[in-house]
Amino acid sequence: MEDLVLVQEQLEKGMREYGVHRYLKAIERRKQHGEEADTSYGKTLIKRSLLICEEALKEEMERDSSAVGRHNKALKYLRKGELRPLIFIAMRFLFNGISAGRQLQTLCRQIGQAVMDEVNGQAYREQFKETGKKLQAQAAKRIGYTYRRELFRTFQNSAEDFKTDRWDTDTQVVVGAKMISIIIEKTGLFYIQNTRERHKSCKYLLPTKACLDAIENHVEMMSEICVSYQPMVVPPNRWEEGSAKGGGYISPWIKPLHMVKTRNEAYLSDLAHMELKEIRAALNAAQETPWKINLGVLEIMEKAYGLNNGMAELPLRIDEDPIPRPRENATEEEVDEYRQDRRNQFQRIRANKGRRIQFVGTLTCAQRYREFENIYFPYQLDFRGRLYSVTNGSLSPQGADFSKGLLHFAEAKPLGERGLYWLKVHMANLMGVDKVSFDERVAYVNENWGEFIRCGQDPLANLLWTEADKPWQALAVCFELVGVDREGVGFASRIPVALDGSCSGLQNLGACLRCEDTGREVNLLPADKPADIYQKVADRVIASIASVSPTKCDKEAAIEAAKELMKLIAADHGITTPKRMNNAIEKAISDCPRDKLSEASKEMRSIYYRVVEGWAWLKFGITRKTTKRAVMTFPYGSKKFGFKEQLMEDILIPTYRELSTKLQQGEITQQEYEEQWPFTGRGHLAANVLADEIYSAVTATVVKAAEAMDWMQQTARLVTKSGRTISWTTPLGFPVQQRYFEMKERRIRTTLCGETYWPRLAEATDKPDTRASANAISPNVVHSLDASHLMMVVGLSAQEGINSFALIHDSFGTHAADTDKLFGVIRRAFVELYRENYLVRLKEQLTAQVAPKYREDVPELPEEGSLDLEAIHKSAYAFA
Fold first, then answer.
1. Would the pLDDT of 528 be above 90?
2. pLDDT tens digits, residue range 228-283?
3. For the purposes of burial, counting CB atoms within 10 Å of the CB of 194, is it exposed (0-12), middle (13-18) or buried (19 or more)?
């Protein structure tokens, strides 16, 4: 053990050194690309200096305006634009070359030209507001000033009545020089040095000692906290009573972890003196679970990654080749098509690169720890009390599928008959066969036993496992099934078998209010087969859309059906003549901005897209997968806007890109493309329509849960109206502090330089943020409740002799042999958690935080339903 302690200390030293190395390497990369303004110290110094320089320039402008005689030429041109973005641009140019030094004359010209471009960009956005928004959005997607400038000039040249303000070279230099002089004078971060080069006098802009010292201090400070957290090879330090720091890592190389991820020292001090036995016990049980690298999975993963074919959802090791440039005499249409292809390819490569970085980090970590018999993961809490492995982002039991597949318990336990039963259920779940009874899941595995055995014996030749929802965990089970096939039920298993909540956010809210309808939909009541709330909502959505949209017809027929409904709306608004009616219809479906439409036209546009995009959705297909994420996130505060973003991110954007790529590469025809992509444009209108439909369907399906969320939001607004932030205590006594304050934000909007909204120069006020607090309270309360449930499960499991845990919020895993015990414990803990209506206690706590003059406005809690909590003990699929 002493030897392992020494190994662990060296590992922690390596974690610190690697974190520092990675940070310094990132800085060096920025230096090499002339992007020091985007380093952490560059951002900090710009943020610290920007407002000072802005005020100084404003004061100089005021003095110049009131002065008699000749006025400053540079200030005349600077008055044409909004000052803050102009100073921000100048600072970026200065900080981008802070290490190398820059020739003053060249720098003046560059800054002057960039300021000129920004002034023109501001004028364009002001004159063409709608197009200006598109320009802003597209500029944010471009990398580099040159590409942004090219984009802006394209917009500018297409506008006939926009006059570009061109400055001559002298003016650009004068403007740049003025910006530099202000920054030098007011920040003390730069100075001008005269040198001689080739018998000529040259001036360079260089950082002052104060600037270099500030950078050095910042880098030193960041080096203290830049740690690449990795697993441990000895049990982590325990979280002890009387302290809220120091659990986890054992050496001084790593700054002591906080029990809760917060910088609030007073809060941590209070926690240290609170009796939180169940909470500390859960943390310790999670981090004292010994794990081991699954060498079989590791070997296949290494080989699969080497194949570079994206097997089992792995990222590509080598990026795809660039799309060939168009021929010399290509048409404008071919050039546009090429540019769109390149943009799509760039987005694919960028997404793959992000996935590859995470994957390679995880794989490398697994390779480093492959020889150890036991490895451990330190845990801490977030402010709601949820448990998180501190190694998240690398190898972790809470990571992606490939990360979980690389891990199994260090302790092996003989399966027995019931353990084998649960291992088969787990395998079916991983394969996506999870909406049938347990016995049917077991039957599915039995029917495919031979194929799973072949997968375990030769995974690269037998690929059924790659079709699983979670392929790498499925492969790990295949390896164990080979052992079972060889040894029978005496086989010693290491796989964590997971029992997951069924839309746990709604389970928690439904149990709070004893809502039988919600409980039935999320499996809190006994049933022969699991209920499927995602499909229930999808069915409601399909029925709603079908009530207004024709189903068995082409798009033209759907458009005609929509126009007939538009005529009815027009008639209701007194538009009856055919000519006026047709004009109203054409305007409603035109590109006319919504704020310039009459109420009649707005209603007509709404019904038009509901019918046409609804028809498109029926043709495309609406399944439980379409509604799943929206339903899952609803109890956590997601509403129509969030649903729209999810639909774009999960379904529409990936499908559009995939079909566009196939069309461009000649894999499908234009007719086939239109058949598979029935939506208008890139799908934004379709997302809007379906988001509305899903929201209506969800709220109609889980009425009590929606009422509980609304009650929490109303009460939260009263607390913040009273000038207080919100806090509450969970059923286990954990103090949650929801501290959202209004911020005085100073955002920088530039057209051509810097990201659209960088930096956010925020100053915290002492006024609670009502909107943020109201939006956050429902998800934060629900998360604090599922955290309490998890901790109760761990405590009761320990009494049953269970000592290995795979825990992810609403997912509870242990050895297959112990799953029968865990199955009962999860339900027992859930019933105990909600034996009393927690919302009653929550109301008392929140009401005490409302000022006396507003307490009469605190709404009554929604009425409780008739759900029998004891029935949860008999529900097979509540956590399955």
1. yes
2. 999 999 999 999 999 999 999 999 999 999 999 998 999 999 999 999 999 999 99
3. exposed
Q: Mean of the per-residue pLDDT values for the chain?
A: 91
Q: Does an H or E element contain 735, and which?
A: strand 735-738
**Tens digit of each residue's pLDDT (9 = 90 or more) over 772-788:** 999 999 999 999 999 99
pLDDT at residue 843 is higher than 70: yes
Task: Compute CA distances 555 → 303, 365, 407, 489, whole Å.
Answer: 47, 53, 50, 58
Percent residues over pLDDT 70 in the chain: 96
Q: Is 95 a residue whose pLDDT tops 80?
A: yes
Residue 743 has pLDDT above 50, yes or no: yes
Q: What is the mean pLDDT of residues 387-410?
A: 95
Q: Which long-range contacts (CB under 8 A, 24 or more apart) does 719-723 make?
A: 719/768, 719/773, 719/846, 719/849, 719/850, 720/768, 720/769, 720/770, 720/773, 720/774, 721/770, 721/850, 721/851, 721/854, 722/849, 722/850, 722/851, 722/854, 723/767, 723/768, 723/851
DSSP state of 201: E
Distance of CA 222 to the CA centre of its chain: 25
- Is the pLDDT assigned to residue 664 strictly greater than 90? no
CA angle 596, 597, 602 (to 5 degrees): 140
The pLDDT of residue 878 is above 60: yes
Which residue pairs, CB below 8 angstroms and at least 24 apart, start in 64-73?
Answer: 72/178, 73/171, 73/174
Query: What stretch of H or E contains 387?
Result: strand 387-389
- Backbone φ and ψ of 190, nearest 5°: -135, 160
Q: Give the Cα separation of 496 and 812 in Å (integer).
A: 9
812 close to 829: Cβ distance less than 8 angstroms: no
Half-sphere exposure of 322 (CA within 13 A, CB side): 5
- Which residue matches tokens 């260089």? 206
What's the whole-number mean pLDDT along residues 539-565? 90
Q: Where are the alpha helices (DSSP H) in 621-730?
A: 624-633, 640-647, 653-664, 670-676, 684-701, 703-721
Q: How many CB atoms lie within 10 A of CB 70?
A: 7
Bridge partners, 498 (sequence order): 813
Q: Which residue has the tokens 């690929």?
A: 463
* pLDDT range class, residue 126, cuts 50, 70, 90: confident
8 A C-beta contact, residue 401 and residue 285: no
- Which of 38, 163, 78 shows the shortest CA–CA distance to 753? 38
Q: Which amino acid is residue 18, in one-letter code?
A: Y
Nearest to 561 by CA among 508, 606, 529, 608: 608
Instruction: Measure the CA–CA gap between 51 and 57, rounded to whole angstroms.
Output: 10
**C-beta of residue 690 within 8 angstroms of C-beta of residue 647:** yes
Q: How far is CA 456 from the centre of its chain?
A: 35
Output the six-digit token pair for 295.
């060498």
**Backbone dihedral angles phi then psi of residue 384, each to the nearest 5 degrees:** -90, -10
The residue behind tokens 């444009």 is 681
Residue 760 phi, psi (nearest 5):
-90, 100
